[in-house]
């Protein structure tokens, strides 16, 4: 049943909805845009939307903070995809209209575990309404795209970047998310290609 997911040569990415609300409406467009961003960096990827919503277990929910623990949510995604044998074969990014935290931080927009190739993006703080502003579909979507590409960048081996507009710049606030582009800077593109492209298949294709 999963054979159809495989495309040889291309990087394989699965976007997993962790909530239906504020995610399902966006996720197909998101997979198209993520593929485009990777393609613009010279990385051929197949980006699949997982057909089921995989809600994180309530064991990951901290009732005092009213937030989900990011590492716990990643572990939860890992355990689900381990059963069907996809861990380590696909880059898996969970996307949920949830609020997430990590120890020592008030909140996180996302977190990545490159070892198991799994990341999570929490979208509650990406909504303009969270800051008392008017709903804005496009703004929310652009923020969502940036955070998914950022975490995927970590999964592919990229670190934080100091380039102002680069998607790999660390964002400590929604203002900083808005300041960057959803794209990798030239340096990150080059690093990315080195990391994901086997040496033998790199050639004289760039002019
Ligand atoms: Zn980061
Ligand atoms: Zn960069």
Query: What is the correct CATH architecture?
Result: 3-Layer(aba) Sandwich
Report the C-alpha radius of gyration, rounded.
17 Å
In the sheet with the most strands, the strands line up as: 2-1-5-9-8
- Mean of the pLDDT scores? 92
Order of helices and strands: EHEEEHEEEEEHHH
What do these coordinates show?
With 207 residues, the protein is an alpha/beta fold. The chain has a single domain (10-194), classed as Collagenase (Catalytic Domain), CATH 3.40.390.10. It has helices at 24-40, 70-83, 137-155, 174-179, 186-196, and strands spanning 11-17, 45-49, 61-62, 67-69, 91-96, 100-102, 105-108, 110-113, 118-122. Strands 2-1-5-9-8 form a five-stranded mixed sheet, sandwiched between helices. A four-stranded mixed sheet has the order 3-4-6-7. The longest helix has 19 residues, at 137-155. The radius of gyration is 17 Å and the shape is globular. The N and C termini lie far apart (41 Å). The relative contact order is 0.15. The model is unreliable at 1-7 and 202-207 (pLDDT under 50). The protein binds zinc ion (2 copies). Residues 161, 163, 166, 168, 184-185, 187-188 line the site of one zinc ion.
Main attributes?
about 210 residues; alpha/beta; Collagenase (Catalytic Domain); five-stranded mixed sheet; four-stranded mixed sheet; 5 helices; 9 strands; about 30% helix; globular; disordered N terminus; binds zinc ion
What's a quick, concise take on this entry?
This protein has helices at residues 24-40, 70-83, 137-155, 174-179, 186-196; strands at residues 11-17, 45-49, 61-62, 67-69, 91-96, 100-102, 105-108, 110-113, 118-122.
């Amino acid at each position: 049943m999963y054979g159809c997911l495989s495309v040889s040569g291309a990087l394989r990415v699965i976007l997993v909805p962790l909530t239906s609300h504020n995610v399902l409406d966006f996720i197909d467009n998101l997979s198209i845009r993520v593929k485009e961003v990777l393609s613009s960096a010279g990385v051929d990827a197949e980006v699949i939307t997982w057909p089921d919503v995989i809600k994180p277990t309530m064991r990951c929910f901290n009732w005092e903070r009213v937030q989900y623990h990011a590492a716990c949510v990643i572990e939860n995604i890992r355990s689900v995809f381990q059963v069907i044998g996809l861990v380590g074969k696909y880059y898996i990014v969970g996307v949920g209209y949830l609020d997430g935290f990590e120890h020592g931080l008030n909140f996180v927009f996302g977190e990545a575990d490159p070892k198991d190739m799994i990341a999570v993006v929490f979208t509650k703080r990406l909504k303009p309404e969270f800051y008392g502003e008017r709903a804005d579909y496009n703004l929310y979507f652009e923020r969502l795209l940036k955070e998914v590409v950022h975490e995927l960048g970590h999964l592919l081996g990229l670190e934080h970047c100091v380039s102002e507009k680069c998607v790999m710049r660390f964002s400590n606030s929604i203002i900083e998310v808005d300041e960057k582009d959803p794209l990798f800077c030239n340096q990150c593109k080059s690093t990315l290609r080195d990391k994901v492209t086997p040496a033998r298949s790199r050639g004289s294709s760039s002019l």
